[in-house]
Design goal:
This protein is α/β, with parallel strands linked by helices and 243 residues long. Helix content is 56%, strand content 11%. The protein has helices spanning 2-11, 15-24, 34-61, 82-89, 92-95, 110-123, 133-146, 149-158, 174-187, 204-208, 211-222, 235-242; strands spanning 100-103, 128-132, 161-167, 192-197, 226-229. It has a 5-stranded parallel β-sheet with strand order 2-3-4-1-5. Strand 3 (161-167), helix 9 and strand 4 (192-197) form a beta-alpha-beta unit.
């Protein structure tokens, strides 16, 4: 009977329950009452599905960095408030569809912080995608050429959190400007966007160009956004100096 039950669990793809039930049959396992065994099996299946969902979301996000909240450097002079960052780690701002703007000079840890929050979002079940902004614009132009633009834009719109890294390294051309407007307009007030940039927010207007569109994009992005302006020397230099 146990063999049949195990086979049925396998066919039903109850992988967590299958492993747990197999373990419960071993001579070394503790004795369970009926309700304890049911609770153990259900919890094992729930944990397994939850972990596989996190793996799926993390893989789909295509993070550049394997960043974790626990490794963020709150050292003196970096202007990173631990309490604020820990509040962001609860992902309440994503639930509310609020944006976050992370600025600072090269190497101070903007991408790492954005990625750490992204990983945290995945662990809490939020659909997340990470892009280097220049590469995203290249993909968008390609999608316009092959007719998949609307499908791609629709996919971006569905993400609970969209991370645009290295924003503003060069001015936007007309195509990229309109693409960014479409992305931000679709997500405004509904989904969260994190933008990480070497440039201060005050300089973004010139990077976007065309005053009317720049005003519209920044009004939707910046209004009530959470702001993190990281200070200090490059973390890459610090690591290099240690070696």
């Amino acid at each position: 009977m146990n063999t049949k039950t195990l086979e049925q669990m396998k066919q039903l793809r109850l992988h967590g329950m299958l492993r747990a039930f197999g373990t419960s049959l071993s001579p070394e396992s503790m004795d369970y009452t009926n309700d304890e065994l049911v609770a153990y099996l259900v919890q094992s299946e729930w944990d397994d599905r939850h972990n596989r969902k996190i793996e799926r979301l993390t893989k789909a996000a295509r993070f550049r960095y394997g960043a974790v909240m626990e490794a963020i450097d709150y050292g003196p002079g970096r202007n990173i408030d631990r309490n604020r960052i820990q509040r962001y780690a609860s992902c309440g701002f994503i639930h509310k569809g609020e944006n976050m703007l992370i600025t600072g000079s090269t190497g101070v840890g903007k991408s790492y912080l954005a990625s750490a929050i992204g990983h945290q979002a995945c662990s809490m079940g939020y659909r997340t995608m990470y892009f280097n902004t220049a590469k995203l614009f290249t993909l968008l132009k390609t999608s316009k050429a092959d007719g998949s633009f609307l499908k791609f834009i629709g996919k971006l719109e569905k993400q609970d959190l969209l991370i645009l890294d290295d924003f503003g390294l060069k001015p936007l051309d007309n195509i990229n400007r309109h693409s960014l407007m479409e992305i931000i307009e679709d997500r405004h007030g509904k989904k969260s966007t994190i933008i990480a940039s070497q440039l201060p927010v005050e300089a973004w207007h010139d990077v976007i160009g065309e005053k009317t569109i720049a005003d519209a994009i920044l009004d939707r992005l910046v209004h009530s956004a959470h702001r993190v302006d990281i200070k200090g020397e490059s973390m890459r230099k610090k690591i290099k100096n240690k070696h």
